[in-house]
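Fold this sequence, please.
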Amino acid sequence: MKQKEIHPAMQPYLDGKVVLFDKPLEWTSFDAVKKVRILTRVSKVGHAGTLDPLATGLLIVCTGKFTKKINEYMGMEKEYTGTFTLGATTASYDLETEPENLKDTSHLTEDMIHAATQSFTGPILQVPPAHSAIKKDGKPVYLAARKGLEVKLEPRPVTIHAFEIEKIELPIVHFRVVCSTGTYIRSLAHDFGAALGVGGYMSSLRRTRIGIFKVEDAYTVESFEKHIGDTKAALERQTNTEL
C-alpha cells in the first residue's frame, strides 16, 4: 500500500506509535484500524489481537515501525470482565446466535457457582468455538459454522490465571478472568455452564487489560478524533506564529 502524503503533525504516527482504543460495541477490530488510517492518513496500521464485534474494550493499534511489535503485544496476558448467562446455550457461545436448550437454574447456589470456577483455573485444554476466525483448510471456520456445517476443532492448551465470580443475579453471573493469549472467553462460558449442568453462554464481554496496557488509558473513537484534530490545529497555530 503506497503511503499518501500526510499532515506534518501526523509524522509521529508514520514513524510509529501505539494507540490504545476502547473499541465500541459492534465495531470490528478492523473498523478501529480503518479509523486510524483515515484520521492519520498513515497506511501502515494493524491491531494486536482481534476483539469480537459483540465485545468492547481494549484494542492495541500499532502504526509505522510499531507494527513489528504486534506479535509481542498479542502474546501478553489479558484481563476480561463481563457476564455469562446460565440456563441456555447458543451455537456461537455468545449472542451472535439464538439461545436454545433452556434449563432451570433456580437450584444453583452461590457455593456451587463459585466452586465450579476451580476446574477452569490454571493450565487447561479448551476447544475454540466453531464460530471463530481460526482457519481450517485456509478458511475461517465460522464460514462453515454459519452455514450449519459441522466444524471439529481440537482442544488447545491455555492458562486461566484468575477466574472470579464478582456478582450472581441468576441466570446472569458477573465474572473477571485473567488469562493467556489464545483463550476464548466464549468457550469458557460454554464449558462453565456445562460443568454446572445447565448450559451457559457469554452475554457480554469487555477487555480491560493487555499486559501493562489498561483500558482506562485508551481513547474512545470520539476522543481520538478530537486528539487528532487538536494536534493538527496546534501545529498550524505554531507554524502561523513563527511566520
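The first helix runs from residue 11 to 15. The chain has two domains: 8-75+212-242, 78-210.
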